[in-house]
Amino acid sequence: MLRRWLPSLAILAFTGLGFALAPLAYSNQFLLFNMMMYMALAQGLNIIYGYTGYLPFGYVGFFGAGAYGAAIIITFWHWPALLAVLGGGLVAVIFGLLLTPLFRLSGAYFSIANLAAAEALYYLVANPHMTTLTQGPYGINLPQAYAPDLAYATMLAILLFAVGAAAYLRRSRFGLALAAIREDAVSAGMAGIDVVRARAVAWLLSAFIAGLAGAAYGWYISVFYPDTVFALSITVFTIVFVLFGGQGTVLGPLIGTLLLYGAYNVIGISNPQYFQLAYGILIVVLVLFLPAGLASLLRRRRTAHER
Amino acid sequence: MGLLEYALLAGLLYGLYFALVAAGLNLIFGVMRIINLAHGDFLMLGAYGAFYLYHLMGWSPLWAVPLTFAAFLALGLPLYYLLVPRLQRSGDPEMRSFILFFGLSQIIEALAVFAFGNDQRSIPARVFGNHPVHLLGQVYPLAWILSAVFGLLGIVALYAYLYGSPLGRATRAIMANPDEAAITGIAVQRISALTFGIGIALAALAGIFSPFMVGAIQPDLGVGITLISFAIVVIGSLGHPLGTLVGGLVYGISLMLMQTYLPSWSQMLPFVLLIAILLVRPGGLLGKGVRRA
Questions:
Q1: Fewer Cβ within 10 Å of end Cβ, chain B: N or C?
Q2: Do B98 and A55 touch (CB under 8 A)?
Q3: In a domain, B288, yes or no
Q4: Which ipTM was obtained for this model?
């Protein structure tokens, strides 16, 4: 029992200690914050893409829903920021519930419809007619809640929650049910798995994580615009990190984010188009030559060793 | 008399043009079952081609039509052999093509920023002369009429090719069933490559008129166009040869009605339309079977 969960616990402890101690050695807190945010998002996307095979191209929609949900809760109801982050996560879950009919679609249809839903939500939030509720295109400003250190700790908790959820799904009975659905939904249904319910649980969990991350992000930067939290590049980065590290594993998305987002910050920020080019080439090469990501290299080596 | 008639006729013109915008995406999906998510980026490249031909050489965009078609057909063939055969041998080509061509779209967009810069470009609509056209009591710019005419010509030519020529008949055989087509002696790879080239060339062709119909030319034009094309194709049903015309008209007319009566919500239109139609008729308006997950 312990042996089964030991690797996951080690990953969890290492991530938690790493990000708790990193600010002592490295002064750019915003970069560390973003790194945690992308790791949490990568883990959230991993839960729905890696474990069920549905690739949500509009994943950023949940992120934006969380950021705006929390901001609206703080602005209108004056809740403490921590509760508002939770509320942001729930707003994303509600958005996810509204989108559950999309599961009637398969493969690429689902991805495109999800992207369309995120874009529709963006235009709804950014519409000048919505100014009284969302400030429309003029953006959100939350000076009353500004508390970067607390927001940093909150994001760390969200990241640990996401890693824990991914680890649980990878090892548990429910996770096996998801894998069975991914491989063959019809057979899984015949084996007694409630396909619709299992898929919806993974979907809402994934939406919840993105919503929490978006809410904490909005809280941390405290001034943002619809383009900031609905940027398509957030989905793009997340997908690349997950694909690079290896979908369907716990460690893969974390390592993918660490390496690629790290590299992006070392070289990329001053010349973003180089990174667009590099990520584009990376995606093409990965799909053609290494479809299961870095993690598959490790596994291939291990099985070769055991033989 | 007035607003409604104006919007409906303008929607018809836009619809004919947008049918051409989406035609290549539909053709490539129909034959190869892959989704070219870089579709809009080829349109963007075609638009830049027309822009440079006009600004450096002083050529009218009409001259760009044959040049662009030939150039992008030639570009599509090697690109096909580079990417698609390897993709089709993999487990889930439809889903993986989606990610692969998304990567390609990122590459094209980044290269376009290097080559053309981030400035917005345009071609003045007066290149066709300053004659507004009177149509059933309404007045439209000549550039709209020309775009619609070329949209219609492109679609008609595509159908003439698909239904009237031996190559087109072979293409439709592959659409129906690639394995059986191969058994009857059709060179599936070669015809698929040609279709891929035609699909890309049609997108680039639509790009020539995009400065008049869509707006300024800029490197990140592609993503939005890909989404709109996808909406149009899905409205008409993916892979159905007549689908794009229906989808384009539905999209064009609803866009013009929205811009006339609810302008601030019109940007949401393609997305809402896409989701609504996918949910009500997952196979598209012309689709027969219903896709189930």
A1: N
A2: yes
A3: no
A4: 0.80
> What is the arithmetic mean of pLDDT over A134-157?
85
DSSP B139: E
Query: Residue A224's beta-bridge partner residues?
Result: A140
CB contact under 8 A, B106 and A104: no
Residue of B nearest to A283 (CA): B103
If one counts the domains in chain B, the total is 1
User: Residue A280 above 70 pLDDT?
Assistant: yes
- SS3 (DSSP) at A22: helix
**Cross-strand bridge partners of residue A140:** A224
Q: What is the CATH number of the domain that holds B232?
A: 1.10.3470
Nearest to B95 among A55, A115, A236 (CB): A55
Instruction: Say if the Cβ atoms of A111 and B98 lie within 8 Å.
Output: yes
Kindly state the DSSP code that residue A299 receives in the 8-state scheme: H
CB-based contact A185 B293, cutoff 8 Å: yes
Integer CA distances (angstroms), B108 to A85, A153, B20, B44, B250, in order: 38, 39, 21, 10, 30
CB B93 within 8 A of CB B192: no
DSSP string, A27-68: --HHHHHHHHHHHHHHHHHIIIIIHH----TTTHHHHHHHHH
Q: For testing the chain A interface, which of B106, B108, B273 should be mutated: the one with the most A CBs within 10 Å?
A: B106
Residue B190, amino acid: R
| Structural domain range at position B260 | 3-120+133-280
CA-based radius of gyration for chain B: 19
Q: Under a CB-based contact definition with an 8 Å cutoff, are residues A183 and A191 in contact?
A: no
CA distance B1 to A117: 36
| More confident call, A191 vs A65 | A65
Identify the pLDDT of residue A301. Answer: 62
Pairwise CA distance, residues A302 & A251, whole Å:
15
What average pLDDT does range B5-13 have in this prediction?
A: 87
Residues 6+ apart with CB under 8 A from B223: A232, B40, B105
| Interchain CB distance below 8 Å, B293 and A105 | yes
By C-alpha distance, which of A137, A121, A140, A120 is closest to A129? A137
CA distance B45 to chain A (A): 16
Whether residue B290 lies inside any domain: the answer is no
Please check whether residue B169 lies inside any domain of the structure. yes
What is the rounded CA–CA span in Å between residue A215 and residue A92? 10
Chain B residue numbers touching A282 (CB-CB < 8 A): 103
Closest by CA position to B276, among listed A61, A69, A62, A104: A104
Contact B195, B171 (CB under 8 A): yes
Instruction: Determine the angle formed by the axes of helices A81-98 and A148-171, rounding to 10 degrees.
Output: 40
pLDDT for position A302? 60
| Cα–Cα distance, A106 to A112 (Å, whole number) | 10
Q: Which residues contact B7 (CB under 8 A, 6 or more apart)?
A: B253, B256, B257, B259, B260, B261
Residue A106 has its nearest CB partner, among B99, B275, B291, at B291
* pLDDT tens readout for residues B212-229: 888 888 888 888 888 888
Judging by beta carbons within 10 Å of its beta carbon (0-12, 13-18, 19+), is residue A301 exposed, middle or buried? exposed
* pLDDT number for residue A214: 95
